[in-house]
Design brief:
The structure is a single chain. By secondary structure, this protein is α/β, with parallel strands linked by helices. Helices cover 42% and strands 17% of the residues. It has 14 helices and 14 strands. The strands form 3 sheets. Strands 3-9-8-7-6-4-5 form a 7-stranded mixed beta sheet, with helices on both faces. The protein has a 4-stranded antiparallel beta sheet with strand order 10-11-14-13, with helices on one face. A 3-stranded mixed beta sheet has the order 1-2-12, covered by helices on one side. Helix 2 (56-69) packs antiparallel against helix 11 and helix 3 (84-97) packs parallel to helix 11 (277-291). The radius of gyration is 21 Å and the shape is globular.
Length: 392
């Protein structure tokens, strides 16, 4: 069997195991109302938690930014591709999350996969939750540090691993909100362990920023961190700007010296062209909308409660989550795909998530709610799911 035949056999295996992914081409801007192949659906797919991706005020800000700053940066940030509007965005982000300084990246994946190796390397030790996002997992692999994975949210196991380690540099890495389960890390306990064992603590708040905490300042603010910590300098937080913020990019925030080190050592920041300054111009408006977005967050909380209160599942399991991520575990890969297809036939688009994104045997529908959904949208989904489980 030659290399081409091996590749085709591997693709056939993905198809056989119901693991082959596919894309659908949406003919409309990001919103709960989508059009696929000329047919309209109500979508419960995106991470646009506050409904800002299609917000006219934000679109106008992006257009204004393009007219003011053009459409490209021209170079890496550390050469000539950094602009005053990006400096202002970093200043605003740091102030918004209560940290000394922030650094903006082109994507969240670039941030996580680059920051981890900048903080730990050969001879060091990294301690990571088993359900962390792929970008953090890749960052650990790139670091070449000793990797210790602890069972999901198991602080006793993490403490045991930290206690047994003799590494001079220790780094604890965790999502704040886990993207496929919707549950939250015990942030105060993680901070206490970082202080106890003299470790850095890197928290990826991709799915909490803009949604949780006062004025949407994120999961760490909701947990009272870093203000409640004695040694907040060891806490490093990442947030994405493509989910609740509705635009694109990511940021890392922390103590000024830490951010300076990351700017000097993070390869995914140093060796890539800077993001377009027009995006930073739009994100300044996005921050204003997030900060003034209590009504959006209240509407979102109502939708989350409405979904949980309406579902009457006996065999399928809605995982407990107070976030917009509402996973409904089906179990079997083929069954999850079939339920998703049945919903498509009813005009509802909910993605089926299968291994390796989630553990084997836990294929699920990842219901993602947005402040742009209406109560009627949620009621329609609830009725369809209840009907499908009864007849499945």
């Amino acid at each position: 069997m030659n290399q081409r035949e091996r590749l085709r056999a591997a693709l056939a295996a993905l198809e056989r195991d119901h693991l082959r992914r596919m894309r659908r081409d949406n003919e409309r801007p990001c919103s709960p109302r989508v059009c696929i192949d000329g047919r309209e659906f109500v979508a419960f797919c995106s991470n646009d938690y506050l409904g800002l991706a299609g917000e006219p005020e934000l679109a106008e800000a992006l257009a204004e930014g393009a007219h003011r700053w053009g459409v490209g940066s021209g170079a890496s940030h550390i050469v000539s591709g950094h602009y005053t509007v990006q400096h202002e965005l970093e200043r605003r982000l740091a102030n918004f999350v209560g940290r000394e300084r922030a650094l903006v990246f082109s994507t969240g994946f670039m941030a996580n996969s680059g920051i981890v190796p900048a903080l730990a390397g050969r001879g060091d030790a990294i301690f990571a939750d088993k359900l962390n996002h792929a970008s953090l997992i890749d960052g650990v692999l790139l670091s070449r540090a000793a990797s210790h994975r602890y069972p999901h949210l198991d602080m006793a196991a993490l403490a045991s691993q930290l206690r047994a380690s003799s590494a001079a540099v220790k780094l604890i890495v965790s999502d704040a909100v886990f993207s496929m389960d919707g549950d939250l890390a015990p942030l105060a306990e993680l901070m206490a362990l970082a202080e106890r064992f003299d470790a850095w603590l890197l928290i990826d708040d991709a799915h909490g920023f803009g949604v949780l905490g006062p004025q949407g300042r994120g999961s760490l603010a909701a947990a009272g961190l870093p203000a409640a910590a004695r040694e907040g300098w060891r806490l490093i937080q990442v947030g994405t700007l493509s989910k609740a913020a509705g635009v694109s990019g990511a940021f890392v925030a922390g103590e000024a010296d830490v951010i300076e080190w990351l700017m000097q050592k993070t390869r995914s920041y140093i060796f890539t062209t800077g993001s377009p300054p027009a995006l930073a111009h739009a994100l300044l408006t996005s921050l204003d909308l997030i900060e003034a977005g209590d009504a959006r967050r209240a509407h979102l909380a109502m939708l989350i409660a409405r979904l949980g209160g309406g579902l009457a599942q006996k065999r399928w399991q809605l995982l407990p989550s107070r976030t917009p991520i509402q996973p409904l575990v089906i179990g079997d890969n083929a069954a999850a795909l079939a339920v998703g297809e049945a919903l498509m036939q009813a005009g509802l688009w909910v993605p089926a998530i299968r291994p390796p994104t989630v553990p084997a045997g836990s294929a699920r529908l990842r219901i993602s709610l947005s402040a742009a959904h209406t109560p009627t949208d949620v009621d329609r989904l609830v009725a369809a799911l209840n009907r499908l489980e009864e007849t499945w």
